[in-house]
Amino acid sequence: INASTSVVYTPDPNQKQTITCTHELGGMLYKLSGACGSCERDYIARRFTVTLTGKYHAPVAAAATASPVYDSTDPVMGSGIGFELNSVNPLVSNLVCSDNGQIAERVNHNDDTGYECFMTTKHSASAAVTIEEDSTVKWEDAAVAGTAYAWTVVIGTVSGNILTTTGSKMQLGQPARDPEGGIQKLSMTCRLHDSAAGAKDWETITQT
To answer: How many CA atoms lie within 13 A of 190 on its CB side?
Structure first.
C-alpha cells in the first residue's frame, strides 16, 4: 500500500475472496496462497493485527531486494486520534475493533498440504470502547433501546498518512462505570451491524 495513494478496505460481501502473501527472509521466499482470516485494530496503541490461514508453499531461494523503497511517513502513521459516535466526540482511552472471521477449510488428501482451499464462513464484527462519561449523552438509554449509531475514527493528520475508519451502525452493550483517577469512565462493548441492504459494510477503512 502506498501512503501517497488513497486505499479503501471493505469486507468481502460474499466472504469468498482470498489473498496471496509472500515475504523474504534470509534469502528465501515464503508464500501463503488462498489466505483469509480476521483483523483486529487497536486504535489507541496504533496496532493492526491480521491473522491469516491459507495454503503453505515450500520456500524457494530468492535474491534479496537490492534497494527496497519505503513510503515516507512523517509523522509516523497513527499519530493523533479522533473518535466520533453519534456526532459526539468523547475522550477515548480504549478502542479495539475486530471482525472475528471464522475460517473453514476444504480438505484434499491428494494435496501435499492436505488442504484444497480456505474461506471465511462467518463474520461477527465487534468493538470495545472506553470513554470519559458525558452527562449530555445517555449512553445507557441507547444500550437498552438497542439504538445503533454511526461512528468514525480518524488517525493521523498529514496527507498520505491518514486512516479513516467509518461504520454505518454500532449498537452499544450495557455500559459499565469504572472511575479512574477521579474521572468517571464508561466501558462499552459494541456490535457492528450490516447496512439496511444487508451488505457487509459495517466498517470501511480509507487511507489518504
So the answer is: 33
Q: Averaged in consecutive runs of 10 residues, what is the pLDDT profile of the chain (208 residues)? A: 55 67 84 84 82 86 72 54 81 82 75 71 78 76 81 80 78 76 78 61 73
Of 178, 25, 3, nearest to 73 by C-alpha is 3
100 Rama sector, left if φ>0, alpha if ψ -120 to 50, beta otherwise: left
Beta strand 163-172 with 148-155 is: antiparallel
Buried b (16+ CB within 10 A) or exposed e, 37-52: bbbebebbebeeeeeb
> In terms of DSSP H, where are the helices of the chain?
139-145
**C-alpha grid cell for residue 33?**
496462497
CA separation for the pair 204, 194 (Å, rounded): 12
Report yes or no: 80 and 46 within 8 Å, Cβ to Cβ.
no
Pairing of strands 126-132, 115-122: unpaired
The CA distance from 208 to 128, in Å, is 25
Please tell me the number of Cα atoms within 13 Å of 115 on its side-chain side: 17
Is 129 in contact with 172 (CB distance < 8 Å)?
Answer: no
DSSP 8-state symbol, 28: E
Nearest to 191 by CA among 208, 181, 203, 179: 203
